[in-house]
Amino acid sequence: MKLYIKTFGCQMNMYDSARIRDTLAILGYTETDSPEEADIILLNTCHIREKASEKLFSEIGRLVKFKKEHTLMIVAGCVVQADGEELLKRAHAVDIAVGPQSYHKLPELITKYNRKKGRIAVTDFPAESKFDYLPPIQAIGASAFLAVQEGCDHFCSYCVVPYTRGCEYSRSATEIMDEARQLVKTGAKEIMLLGQNVNGWHGEGARDLGDIIRMIADIDGLERIRYTTSYPSEMTENIITAHRDVPKLMPYIHLPIQSGSNAVLKAMNRQYDRDGYLRISERFRAVRPDIAISSDFIVGFPGETDKDFEDTLDLVQRVGYASSFSFKFSARPGTPASIMKNQIREEVKTERLIRLQDLLLSQQKQFNVNTVGKELDILLIENGKEKGQISGYTPYLQNTHIAADESLLGQIVRVKIESATATSLGGRLVKA
Ligand code: SF4
Fold first, then answer.
1. For residue 227, how far is its CA from the centre of ligand 1 (angstroms)?
2. What pLDDT does residue 28 have?
3. Which CATH number fits the domain that encloses residue 54?
4. Are residues 144 and 245 in the same domain?
5. Do 196 and 146 share a structural domain?
6. Residue 77: exposed, middle, or buried by beta-carbon count in 10 A (0-12, 13-18, 19+)?
7. pLDDT at 264 exceeding the cut of 90
8. Which domain holds residue 146?
9. Is the torsion defined by CA of 237, 243, 244, 249 positive or negative?
């Protein structure tokens, strides 16, 4: 039996899709790239960006032609959590809709499913942890995700995550260690620790994420550790100094600021100010001078003045980013920011985004250019776009292409960096 999964959104959704695939493997489903031959078509959805539901309905419309009589169409993820019943009402092709905290129930839901008795939407936040019911994780490549924390208690005024993923939940250190060992045993060389608020981890068996990183670093065969996404005011000294003490922890930190204006940060309900953020980024640079700092930005938040926006540009100049993600504010239904009175005109948002991205891209290019001539270790993870080319990532998470045999995929090799653009590096294999 075949399973076709399409995943939208963040790394947490990619992790969830991998866990769903492992869960359904128990029922005998193997993954296929072709919806045409699928017995289950599953869409794992994201609700962060604008028009998420509309994009989902159009994807359902595209895939419905592949649905045969026996095929199940399942929608999972955050759109279900936000609009599950509505989804079933509007999309008649969908058989089962399941929220992000309930996908461990899929084997039971699928086995007992009978369309005549009614289609199913599961959107509760179950008392039990889904992680207790999932089968052992399997790495599907050299780089693997491991969810250590989920949900968020911060309630930023523009964000749907606290409503779709629920309140913060941290897995225990023992659970995390077991899963990390299992990932390494099944081929992972790099583990990305995931959480909506990963550095707010507060589970049993360790003081904080810094301890978790130090514990995982002792696993033989594991070569690289990363973590994302961090919340600035929850950054601990123990996490920061791990970047100095733990060679396996990569010199890269994704630290979303969103805005460089204190007034906008307050309206966003972000619980830090620009000076606090600058102090944290300086601490990272003090313990690890070469660290690559990355961030997220929202421009055109309700009430953002020209001066607020200039403050953001100023902060970007001060920090100097190696990479970034930036967006125009888009109102997410049900969030406080969506009903704020002082919304910014679209053309103003566009103009600000262009200016911000110009600056960020020039910093990113400069960061990449600075690595030309250096020898860096690259974890090779996929075939490149051109024949005979493979690609992977530097410790600073720069996408790097080299000419080499694909038998090297999954290995860490030494590469001399010979060229750089804003988005990638080119290099020559020095040592396999
Ligand atoms: S901290 Fe992140 S996940 Fe939590 S509410 Fe704010 S933006 Fe959303």
1. 16
2. 92
3. 3.40.50.12160
4. yes
5. yes
6. buried
7. yes
8. 130-369
9. positive
Q: Check whether residue 107 and residue 139 sit in a common domain.
A: no
For residues 107-126, average pLDDT: 85
Shared domain for 49 and 180, answered yes or no, is: no
Instruction: Find the 23 Cα to ligand 1 centroid distance in Å.
Output: 28
pLDDT of residue 247: 98
| Atom 6 (ligand 1) nearest CA | 156
**Domains identified in the chain, total number:** 3
pLDDT of residue 36: 93
Mutate to test the pocket of ligand 1, among 11, 46, 152 (most ligand atoms within 8 A of CB): 152
Q: For residue 160, give the ligand 1 atom closest to its CA.
A: 8
Whether the CB-CB separation of 59 and 43 falls below 8 Å is answered with yes
- Going from the Cα of 82 to the center of ligand 1, the distance in angstroms, rounded, reads 16
> For the segment 308-365, what is each residue's pLDDT rounded down to a tens digit?
999 999 999 999 999 999 999 999 888 999 999 999 999 999 999 999 999 999 999 9
The pTM score is 0.90
Residue at 282: amino acid letter: E
Residue 159 Cβ inside 6 Å of ligand 1? The answer reads yes
Q: What is the mean pLDDT of the chain?
A: 94
> Is the domain of 334 the same as that of 387?
no
H or E stretch at 227 = strand 224-228
Ligand 1: distance of its center to the CA of 224 in Å? 26
Does any ligand 1 atom lie closer than 6 A to the CB of residue 155?
yes
Q: CB-based contacts of 176: which residues, under 8 Å, 6+ apart?
A: 146, 148, 193, 203, 212, 216
Which range among 115-119, 269-273, 318-322, 419-423 shows the weakest confidence by mean pLDDT?
A: 115-119
- Do 165 and 263 belong to one domain? yes
Distance (angstroms) between ligand 1 centre and the Cα of 155 equals 6
Find the radius of gyration of the CA atoms of the chain: 22
Both 156 and 297 in one domain: the answer is yes
